[in-house]
Amino acid sequence: MAAPYEGPLTTKYIGTPLEFHDVEPAWVVKWPRSLTHFHTYGMLTPFFKGLTEGKLLATKCTNPECPFQHTWLPPRADCPDCYSRMEWVEVPTVGEIYAFTMLDYAGIGIEMTTPYWQIDVAIEGVDTIFKGYLAHGKAEIGMKVKAQFRTDNPSHTILDIYWVPADE
Amino acid sequence: MIKFGKGNLRIPQWSKRVFMVAGGCTPFRKYFPEYKLEELVMMGYKMMLEENDLKMSPQEIKDSIQFAVYGEFADHFQDQLLCEAKVHDYLGLDPLYNVGIKTGGATGGSAVLMGAQAIASGYANCVLVAGWERMDEVDTRTGNFYISTAACKDFETRMGRIYSSYYAPMANRFAMAYNLSEETRAKIAVKNRGYAVSNPNAQQPGRHTVEEVLSSRMSAYPLRFLECCAMTAGSASVLLCDEEMAYKLSDKPVEVFICGGSHTLRVADRRPMDIPLLPNEEPGMYDELLKESGRWPGFESFLAARFAAYLAYRMAGINDPLEELDLVELHDAFTISDIQTYGDIGLRPYGQEADYVESGDCYHTNPHTGQPGKCPANLSGGLLGTMHAVGATGIWQAAEVLWQIQGKYDYFHGHEKWWKRAGKEKPADYENLQVPDAKQGLWVSHAGVGSHVTVGILRKAW
User: Fold this and answer.
1) What does B385-453 look like in DSSP terms, one character per residue?
2) Which of A101, A120, A133, A163 is the best mutation test for B, with the most CBs of B within 10 A?
3) Is A151 a domain residue?
């Protein structure tokens, strides 16, 4: 149990004074922020672990009552059509570029060198389209690509998968 | 959802009619150190109380409000949780209840929808809807990153950390599927930034050429800097009333209809489905188009916008939008998002979006004929030219439509006092962009890559 209050206290300022960003037309102070969040991949952990092992995992609804039984990549644990828990399935690591952009000006913290090709890949048997980046080459709609995995020194993020032209 | 259940398509109906009588806003700037956030909200709110020919004093109106809805996009930017409480207290409205609404770029539209619901239900007969964003507490690239956390943080944010990179793939897909040229896209930037020249509150006004737009710096191919809206500090307010209160307060109230739709945060999760048809569309009319493009809404269109329009047109009894709307304010965060929406809200059938621009219908004055454009878009300057203080945007757009219907464009844009307030000279090439005899207008408030969209309709009611 903490000691009860027993008398006068002296309090000292131990903070770091804020610097000015501007003083006119009003005081604008620099307000530092440095944060670390603890973010869970939850039931999608097998997907991110799979990338580090060179596997591309999607989830598939196997409920015979489900009107759609779709295969999802990005995966999701629960089927939005019938609400049943889905199954993990390995999907082909080849696909076709459905849409793309060349990103020249990225926001702060970008982890790839710019410019780079961001691509959206259609994969046989997958009902959604999967965003990634093309590590080299020139992206075009309809271009065939194959997946590569960052199994050595993985980032533990979605950047552990990337794509290259299929014909090399 | 890719198939609708029986109950999903019920057309919303107010239990009591809803009206809008007044609007206000601040100047919009990249950096606004002169005022704290709540001081900016006060500025727009006071303008709403004082400048809309209301038949009661600001004090009497304040005494009549029972409920407030506040729009703010991102706690990241404000770096202040419960801003609503701070603002509400600053406006002197405690202990009236207030709620904060947050639906990304559609926050303003959603706030109006929630305010309208409070009126329609009878919870209140006089509701303040105010919104704000202060995007100047961080540098631009940090702001780009903050906004990109409105893409999926697990699967998308790291792929760009800037929102243009989530629209750009749609732009490339749209260009291929619907034969959209770079020049048509650029014309939107030229038009809206040009209209912003006449808006004293505009952040990015400018007389540009198509060539300038297309030779401006690339953000994410094919979207250039001049095709992207900026980050803004500012605020906007509107006042909603029931029928009795509306006519007590104003000789020029407008009636409000507004509905919303939603779709996946990740555009790539959008599974193909049948197109919900607008009142003037025929079954089978898109069979050929879908045979070619394969999937709707795909990367080309927004189900959320189509669904909101599907509901709102039926709620308001609008059959042919292009014929019945006198003006629209669309969510031109990017040139492509503006164009994508034309099909969704029926300004053109899907696949013919570019024609809304090329025909001249989208201009105040049709450049081909010199006659008034059939249904001008974003005479306010839009997001490209005037502002995207995200939580305020859909509220400000509504105010701009309201003023057009009330015939007050020239007062709110041309009067010297607004130029003075903004610290600017009224330009020699100011144009009065009033739409003659405007009776009905629409505004679209839009989030993410189409995650939340409201379609609102304002109709002259005097």
Assistant:
1) II---HHHHHHHHHHHHHHHHTT-HHHHHHSHHHHHHTT-PPPTT----PPTT--EEEEEEE-TTTSEE
2) A101
3) yes
In chain A, how many domains are there?
1
Place of tokens 């878009």: B377
Contact between B162 and A103 using a beta-carbon 8 Å cutoff: yes
Out of B156, B221, B225, whose CB is closest to A102? Answer: B221
Check CB contact of B39 with chain A, cutoff 8 Å: no
The answer to whether the Cβ–Cβ distance between A101 and B165 falls below 8 Å is yes
pLDDT (tens digit, 9 = 90+) per residue, A75-86?
999 999 999 999
Whether the CB-CB separation of A131 and A120 falls below 8 Å is answered with yes
Contact A23, B34 (CB under 8 A): no
Cα–Cα distance for residue pair B243/B252, rounded to 1 Å: 12
Q: Measured between CB atoms, does A109 come within 8 Å of chain B?
A: yes
How distant is the Cα of A64 from the closest Cα of chain B, in angstroms?
18
Q: Please report whether residue A18 resides in a domain.
A: no
Contact B218 A25 (CB under 8 A): no
Residue of B nearest to A111 (CA): B158
Give 10-residue mean pLDDT values along chain B (462 residues): 93 98 98 97 98 98 98 95 98 98 98 98 98 96 96 96 97 95 98 98 98 97 97 98 98 98 95 96 93 85 98 98 98 98 98 97 98 98 98 98 98 98 98 98 98 98 98
CA distances from B154 to A39, A71, A128, B118, B137 (A): 10, 18, 16, 36, 26
Strands A129-134 and A116-122: antiparallel
- Interface contacts (A, B; CB < 8 Å): 125
Opening angle at CA B412, ends B365 and B388, nearest 5: 80
Whether the CB of A120 is below 8 Å from some CB of chain B: the reply is yes
Q: Strands B440-446, B327-329: parallel, antiparallel or unpaired by DSSP?
A: parallel
3-state SS, residue B361: coil
Look-up: residue for tokens 């305010």? B115
C-beta atoms of B3 and A67 within 8 A = yes
Q: Is residue A10 part of a domain?
A: no
Of all residues in chain A, the one with the smallest CA distance to B225 is A105
User: A47 is in which domain, residue-wise?
Assistant: 42-165
pTM > 0.90: yes or no = yes
Contact list, B216 vs chain A (CB under 8 Å): none
Domain-embedded: residue A26: no
The answer to whether the CB atoms of B165 and A128 lie below 8 A apart is no
Closest CA to B239 of B46, B15, B438: B46
What are the structure tokens assigned to B117, written together? 């619901």
Sheet with B233-241: strands ordered across: B97-101, B67-72, B126-134, B233-241, B19-25, B254-262, B452-460, B440-446, B327-329
